[in-house]
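From the shared-data thread, chain only:
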Amino acid sequence: MARVRISDVAAAAGVSTSTVSLVLNDRTGARISEETRARVREAAAVVGYTPNSIARGLRTQRTRTIGLVSDVIATTPFAGRMLAGAQDAAREHGHLLILVNTDADPAVERDAIRALVDHQVDAMIFATMWHRVVETPEGLPDRTVFLDCRPADGTRPAVVPDEVAGGRAAVRELLAAGHRRIAWLDIDEPDPPVASGLRHQAYREVLAEAGITPDPAWHVRGDGTTAASGRAATDRLLDLPPHRRPTAIFCFNDRMAAGAYVAARHRGLEIPADLSVVGYDDQQLVAGELDPPLTTIALPHYEMGRWAAEVALGAREPPEPDQPYLMPCPIIRRDSVSSPPAAAPTPAGGEPDTTP
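Structure, as tokens:
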């Protein structure tokens, strides 16, 4: 089917092609009557004319598009909320979001950036699935925002989760329920994610504020972030003598918390009557589906995606380049936290009893 041209609109409206161009490009300074403008627009609708976005982009230096380059977000359901947030913000500002998922392949990433720049996208978002520090890829345009990561050189605006504030909220939730023996279920990896260190920092700070010196045995690490690793690490906690055994666990993520549930139940323990558990992520099909549903800290994927698109389009003021914006991580209260069991004495002064 032949593309409808501007000359077809001109013929249908009985005007020149230059008049059609002025009307359809909303040139308000041109001396064209409202009657003629209405006739041109009606003719364009009748013949089915749509403007050539590439040609318009060459004239205006704007293509009404945003490029988003990601690693594996598009194939990860819970992190896909970032795409939804970015897409909603782009659409509200009259832009189309163009996504390229690179599967973390550097060659694909380079080609994607080059192709989007050649397409003359108005702005770009560089996103990762995990909060981490990244080297700035070559070829990124000036109007680039980093999403769920921050550039090592601190030269571009970035948005990441406020991991420390989220961790503090998790530990304070357990303290407010009356717990003093609170464990931190971490991950054991050669190059742990940024979130691990920040959440552990929050754990230590809140316990220190409460006058609690944690028993070193309360910090356990799982081999990875799976439910199986969470179960194995929780087993080590539950092997501690009763007077040292924690009454609550703050887990690195929801999947590890699911493993903690399994370990507890294999010991005949009930959650939260015998053991309270708090996770992190609010992962879809995990946190809310556990029995009982898991109290957790939500990663603000949708909000971060919106923020990144709005900053990229100039609709929101960015922070200082060397200071990423910390998006709040709200606590989602469900049913996995209660007061500690009555038979769980607290060592005097909150100090851990390290006797075997």
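The chain has three domains: 6-51, 65-156+302-327, 163-294+334-350.
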